[in-house]
Amino acid sequence: MKIKFWILVLAISGTQACNTPHVAASHDADTPVTLNNGWQTLFDGNTTNGWHSYGKDKAGTGWIADNGILHFDPSKKDGGDLVTNESFKNFDLQLDWKISPGGNSGIIFYVNDNPEKYHYVWLTGPEMQIIDNEGHEDGKYPKHRAGDLYDLISALPESAKPVGEWNHAEIIALNGKLDFYLNSVHVVSTTMWDSNWDKMVAGSKFHEMPDFGKFREGHISLQDHGGDVWFKDIKIKKL
Predict the structure, then answer these.
(1) Does the residue 118 lie in any domain?
(2) Which residues have a Cβ under 8 Å from the Cβ of 229 and sit 6 or more positions away?
(3) According to a count of CB atoms within 10 Å of the terminal CB, is the N or C end of the chain lower?
(4) CA distances to 6, 7, 38, 156, 205 from 103, in Å
(5) What total number of domains does the chain contain?
(6) How far is the C-alpha of 215 from the C-alpha of 99, rounded, in Å?
């Protein structure tokens, strides 16, 4: 009986070891908390666990988590683009954002987290634009406005709320099919990695970036563009 007992203990221990998720040692070991229906929270509301500033092993002090809100405060002089420790392939990402007057930021995805090769997240990852359309100079340009697939496709119809109000964003990426929703309005639809995608990239500011928009799995990033921006209710579902 004792032999059978120890065999059972070893079997259970081995199963638990196999099910333990692997996380890079240089980053926080926290993994997303599972919610209902396959959703995972990427932000616990009180810490930056599960995230790091690009090129660093933890989040810069400019990223402040408090009472359910993640605030980038540029006055702290220690920010950098915030990047998930985990990478994603097919996903449905949802979050709420609020921009400051004259502010600019973005939600960047399929980021290749390799700062030695790529000095910035936008050298590899496409972006859903976050901006004060009326108060920031970049908002005057087509494909640079809130909800746009930045410098590639304009968000139509425009559905961003006035500066200072919360906006609900959703990005769905499934086997190359890419859809953006802003405040429940379907604003962008395209297919990545086909000939039309290559043509769009070739006609954009990214044409000199050989690996832009090429990766089919990568990290999520929240952009430090030098202005105050707030995020909350960040969650993702793997598809």
Answers:
(1) yes
(2) 71, 72, 97, 98, 99, 100, 103, 105, 130, 222
(3) N
(4) 61, 61, 33, 21, 21
(5) 1
(6) 28
Per-residue pLDDT tens digits for 177-233: 999 999 999 999 999 999 999 999 999 999 999 999 999 999 999 999 999 999 999
Q: Which residues pair with 11 in a beta bridge?
A: none
Q: What is the pLDDT of residues 23-38, one digit of tens each?
A: 333 454 455 677 778 9
Identify whether 1 is part of a domain.
no
Sorted by sequence, the CB contacts under 8 Å of residue 110 that are 6+ apart come out as 124, 125, 126, 173, 213, 215, 216, 217, 218, 219
For residue 2, being part of any structural domain is answered with no
- Tokens 């990402």 identify what position? 93
Which residue type does 89 have?
K
